[in-house]
Amino acid sequence: MPIRSGLLALVAFAAVGCGGGPTTFGSAQEAYDRGLAEYERGRYGLAIEYLRASLDFGRTSALADDAQLALARSYAADRQYLLAGTEFTRFIEFYRTDDRIEQAAFERIQAYAELSPRYELDQTDTRQALAYINIYLQQYPQSDNAVAAADLATELREKLARKAFEAARLYERREVYEAAVLDYQRVLEDYPASAYADDALLGALRSQVAYADGSVLERQVQRYREALNLYDQLRTLFPQSPTLAEAEALYDVAYTRWQAAGGEGATATAQ
């Protein structure tokens, strides 16, 4: 018997998993069919093993693309989202002419979004999901899933914005005001459409006033002036923001202290 035939014969009677019941199969088709049957029963772990076994017959077989996509979906259904994302990527890369690539790309996004943790944890998977969303929206802007992908991107960016905002707040609470100002401003720069943007600008103003208060006299004029500029920016960018009342009180403080420190020719006035 040729070596290739001998290997296929060994594969043909492979055992699959420990899900109970008959676990042998004689062909890629049989393994694939059993995998789909187990998927329909909600027995995703066993479905995964059958589908992987089906792919062991070769990724160029007539049903390899179907098995690959079903495998990715089985991992997702089993909440093994990292493996699901990997298998969706393999489908996209191996079967580039398949008309299901667009849907697979969207399901890959969903898998990585599921991996996105609470805001205070490492956000590598969140950023990966956003990267895939950007690719998807560039490639399929007219897709039926485009709105859902964009909405998901907004949700994930809000999480990143909150993480950045809380980091700035931590600096402020620790009275590291210069770093707090920079981090608050970074929230506005990186996430200008976020719900945290106006709060971040208010935080930058509040921290800048505190930073100026603790500065040596010869630096106070410049640093209070920077606080006044932050107020002007907040009022311009977010004229309806509920933060303006607190911002105006901070403006009054900064303006009075700027004048006391020797500031001249102020043109900005509180509204």
Predict the CATH topology of the largest domain. Serine Threonine Protein Phosphatase 5, Tetratricopeptide repeat
Main sheet attributes: strand count, strand direction, barrel closure:
none
Helix-strand string = HHHHHHHHHHHH
Number of strands: 0
Please identify which CATH superfamily of the largest domain we are dealing with: Tetratricopeptide repeat domain
The second-level CATH architecture of the largest domain is Alpha Horseshoe
Shape: elongated
Count helical runs.
12
> What are the low-pLDDT stretches, counting only 5+ consecutive residues below 50?
1-22, 266-271
Distance between the termini: 91 Å
Helix content: over 70%
**Whole-number tally of structural domains:** 3
How big is the Rg? Answer: 29 Å
Output the structural class.
mainly alpha
What's the pLDDT, averaged over the residues? 89
- What's the CATH first level of the largest domain? Mainly Alpha
The percentage of residues in β strands lies in under 5%
Map the helices and strands.
Blueprint: H1 3-12, H2 28-40, H3 44-55, H4 64-77, H5 81-94, H6 101-115, H7 124-139, H8 146-173, H9 177-190, H10 197-213, H11 217-237, H12 244-260
Quick overview of this protein structure:
With 271 residues, this protein is mainly α. It has helices spanning 3-12, 28-40, 44-55, 64-77, 81-94, 101-115, 124-139, 146-173, 177-190, 197-213, 217-237, 244-260.
How would you portray this structure in words?
The protein is mostly helical and about 270 residues long. The protein folds into three domains: about 1-80, Alpha Horseshoe (Serine Threonine Protein Phosphatase 5, Tetratricopeptide repeat); about 95-175; about 175-270, Serine Threonine Protein Phosphatase 5, Tetratricopeptide repeat (Alpha Horseshoe). It is built from twelve helices and no strands. The chain has helices at about 5-10, 30-40, 45-55, 65-75, 80-95, 100-115, 125-140, 145-175, 175-190, 195-215, 215-235, 245-260. Helix 6 packs antiparallel against helix 7 and helix 11 runs antiparallel to helix 12. The protein is elongated and about 90 Å long.
